[in-house]
Amino acid sequence: MMRALKARPNIQTMAPYVQGQSEIGGIKNPIKLSSNEAPFGPSPKALAVIDQEKPYLHRYPDGDQSELRNALARKYAIEPSRILCGNGSEELILLLIRTFMEPGDELVMSEFGFVMYEVHGQAQGAKIVRAPERNFRTDIDAILRAVTEKTKIVAIANPNNPTGTCLSGSEIERLHRELPPSVLLMIDSAYAEYATDKAYEPGLDIVRNAENAVMLRTFSKIYGLAGLRIGWAYCPQAIADMVQRIRTPFNTNRLALRAAVAALDDDEFVAKSQAHNQAAVARMMTGLQEIGLNPIPTETNFILVQFSIDSPKTAERAAAHLLAAGIIPRPMGAPGLRHCLRISIGQDHENEAALKALAQFMTA
Ligand SMILES: *Cc1c(COP(=O)(O)O)cnc(C)c1O
């Protein structure tokens, strides 16, 4: 008897991940507002060290990641031994899930939480439990109600992608306090540098004194290094030691490690990006409201814009209109968000072009 080769059932039922579109057929240099990338390119300091590193690309990278871990430790006044670097923070999500979850365990996330928790959780055979949101905001009580004996990880993006909303430091603290010690709280602070809400905290203080919380950060967003793939996690020592066992020694590459150290030191670039983002978000929020749209207030470098559920001014039609104008937004596939487009903050001329195209769409 011949038996066909079959993938594991939990993988067969997964939908393939759809990346933000980057091209439009027939249009040269489209305005790409689909992946929350930095509008001004990479940090110039990072670019400079990449040139210096090129002659050494025949050498393996430093498997200990010590230069970057030490630089992060100095900047944030934390212990280097509790830091792990990943091929994007996305790899650290994967490693944490693989370290803690067995098939049948539950991962709790917010209704409109970051899709990568689901992708890696499902691949591991975990059951994904989504806690309903209120006004597109993570609801701590709903998250706590969703926790059962089988829960191993609660994953929260703060600020969240794709909603753009955030929880305050004290809300996350309460969530952590009320979770059983057997549950890991994963605080994904990919957009920390963009948050302007005074009550926001990235989670450093919680992780410093906790045994069941980790904070994830990335160089893909404000530092403009998405293409290099580099992120990091701050963990309790015992968790760092466990994850180190499955982190492959060369998961982060030479260029990424050196560029991240340089970018971390590029205060001028970060300050410029923050100032730009704050002004551009304010301008876009007003502009979108003025043309009759309903954007959700954001703490990030993107805006989730609500369109009409009824024809003709739907998100789907708006996306087609933007694409025809050479602008790429991010449509939302999640039930409950199909009336939305996520639009990243670009340079001023790009944002103005998006606003102009949407104004045309709304009045046509
Ligand atoms: C972009 C993003 C990340 C970062 O992913 P990288 O793998 O570091 O590029 C992580 N979490 C959220 C919520 C994000 O939006």
From TrEMBL:
Residues 29-358 form the Aminotransferase class I/classII large domain. The modification N6-(pyridoxal phosphate)lysine is found at residue 221. GO terms for biological process: L-histidine biosynthetic process. Signal peptide: none annotated. Pathway: Amino-acid biosynthesis; L-histidine biosynthesis; L-histidine from 5-phospho-alpha-D-ribose 1-diphosphate: step 7/9. Keywords: Amino-acid biosynthesis, Aminotransferase, Histidine biosynthesis, Pyridoxal phosphate, Transferase. GO terms for molecular function: histidinol-phosphate transaminase activity; pyridoxal phosphate binding. Its EC number is 2.6.1.9. Its cofactor is pyridoxal 5'-phosphate. Coiled coil: none annotated. InterPro entries: Aminotransferase_I/II_large, HisP_aminotrans, HistidinolP_aminotransfase, PyrdxlP-dep_Trfase, PyrdxlP-dep_Trfase_major, PyrdxlP-dep_Trfase_small. It catalyses: L-histidinol phosphate + 2-oxoglutarate = 3-(imidazol-4-yl)-2-oxopropyl phosphate + L-glutamate. It holds the Pfam family Aminotran_1_2. Belongs to the class-II pyridoxal-phosphate-dependent aminotransferase family. Histidinol-phosphate aminotransferase subfamily. HAMAP family: HisC_aminotrans_2 (MF_01023). Homodimer. This is Histidinol-phosphate aminotransferase.
